[in-house]
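Appendix B. Chain record.
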Amino acid sequence: KVTIPSQTTYSTGNGPISVVAADVNGDGKPDIIVVNYGSSNVGVLLNIGNGTFAAQTTYLTGAGPFEAAAADVNGDNKPDVIVANSGSNNVGVL
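Structure tokens predicted for this chain:
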């Protein structure tokens, strides 16, 4: 028998549509990046390290953000957040 623990929820912006896990602050712990379609922003929830996450910090995007990825695209050895903005027909790098 598999026991699934109860869900822990965290507040996001309006219309969360996708999530990515990546270590955005370099502490070796995966953080959560949530794409908030209805708020036209992405939220980053930092991993506290005890199985929980801090409240999201939001970053504005173009209109209708739909999907995000994390990778070092500018060569500074830190992950960047790349966001596809379907409402403004562009891609943003945070």
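Further analysis of this model is presented in Appendix C.
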